[in-house]
Specification:
The chain has 194 residues and is mainly alpha-helical. Among the domains are: 35-91, no CATH class; 100-136, no CATH class; 142-174, no CATH class. It has helices spanning 6-30, 41-48, 68-72, 81-84, 109-112, 132-136, 156-161, 165-172, 190-193; strands at 51-54, 61-64. The chain has a two-stranded antiparallel sheet. The radius of gyration is 26 Å and the shape is globular. The N and C termini lie far apart (70 Å).
Length: 194
Amino acid sequence: MNTLHPFRLGRAVLAALLLAPAALRATESSRPIQPAPAVPNPECLECHEAEFKPRKKGQPPEWIGVKADTYATSAHGKLACVECHTTIAETPHPSKLPAVQCAACHEKARATHVFHPRLALTPGSEGKDTSCKECHGSHDTVSVKRKEFAFFDGGQTTACGRCHEAATKDYLASAHALTSTGRNRTTPDCLTCH
């Protein structure tokens, strides 16, 4: 049986302990270093943090701007603002900015959202059915895996109904929307057919 002498074993353990930080640093240095964003989020929030105020004189107050805590817990909460608002390189920036191009990161969206065929047009067309934020929000985008997502598990009728009111009314009056008691029955939702 090949065993280490206690003195040699102690030296081996000591060597491993001494070399571990160097090995960890070598691993960390091999990871790509993410450059700091051109404009950090706190700098964006200096001007764009949400305020509860009227949009125009005489209108009721509403939240205008970005709620920092809501953004932090959103699906994009770990991103820098300038990762979506790619034309901003410094502040102050021009007041008119091009629309955010969600498809730049979400390339598969055109294939997975075939129920809105105008998304596949090149160049893209303007409208509610081609605006990602109409369904998914913007700074408050909820992950599709969370139950708060508008289309999550049974929420499609209400969520799709925001734009498709007549179709939703017809669906709710149809046999497809009826739920039976006693048996386990899967009720089809909007995307079952579309």
